[in-house]
Design brief:
This protein has 9 helices and 6 strands, in the order αβββαβααβααβααα. The protein has about 250 residues and is α/β, with parallel strands linked by helices.
């Protein structure tokens, strides 16, 4: 595996030999070329803590911090295509890669990078979304029961909603298969930190530094906010996540 990663790193370095203006850009904050990882940030799953430690310097080609895994893959292609366009200074042009070569190399990078993400108990996450301080602030506009009744998508209250119905939708390919190398529960973040370090052979050493935590959110005591009716609403609405990640109320 280390040999494959070294090859990918050399490929990235060659493709990123660009003008000073281009060097200020990155595909998306989900991708860290130096650590060779891709982190899919599902909203309200403790992502700010991880994103703050992974974000590379530069202006993202796609600024949305909550792209799904397939959108990140497609962004990588656009990014590497952008790196090679307008760079021909010689004749003949054997050094310019064909489109098939770009796609093959991007797929190699996508396959070899460590792809990971986090998920959260759907009932606790719904409470966190209701009490969030950023994006669409809901708690002063409707009751929690009304919120549960209208909470159809996993990103309803985000500034940049992606209309994914469940958290797992961020992590699957076109056939619905989860293609992540590792998905941890934010409730078990301390254990996940050790697992991630081992799986990346020490390339990625995260620290549990709480970021963007709302001290006024009662999400840790989420059960107290639910009635039998609202508990069942969330259970039905997010059954896919509950079944896949084995969550209970």
């Amino acid at each position: 595996m280390s040999g494959i990663l070294s090859k990918s790193k050399s490929f990235i370095r060659n493709f990123r030999r660009r003008s000073k203006q281009d060097m200020q850009s990155i595909p998306n904050e989900a991708v860290n070329f130096n650590k060779q990882v891709i982190f899919i940030a599902v909203p309200k799953t403790g992502t700010t803590t991880v994103r703050s430690q992974l974000r590379e310097k530069g202006t993202p080609l796609i600024p949305n911090p909550h792209l799904n895994i397939m959108q990140v893959r497609d962004t990588l292609y656009v990014y590497f295509l952008k790196c090679v366009l307008g760079r021909n200074t010689n004749f003949p042009t054997e050094s310019v890669p064909e489109d098939s070569g770009i796609r093959a190399r991007v797929q190699e990078v996508f396959d070899t990078f460590f792809k990971f993400s986090a998920v959260r108990n759907p009932w606790a996450r719904a409470v966190s979304l209701f009490f969030r301080r950023e994006g669409l602030q809901i708690k002063n506009r409707m009751s929690f029961e009304d919120f549960c009744h209208n909470h159809f998508y996993a990103s309803d209250t985000c500034r940049q909603p992606t209309l994914h119905k469940n958290q797992i939708d961020w992590l699957c390919d076109e056939s619905g298969l989860c293609i992540m190398d590792y998905v941890y529960k934010v409730e078990n973040f301390e254990l996940a930190i050790k697992e991630i370090e081992e799986r990346t052979e020490g390339r990625l050493r995260l620290v549990n530094r709480a970021k963007n935590r709302n001290p006024n959110s009662p999400s840790k005591k989420y059960r107290e906010l639910y009635s039998d009716r609202t508990r069942k609403i969330i259970a039905k609405r997010f059954q896919k996540d509950i079944d896949y990640f084995k969550y209970t109320f």
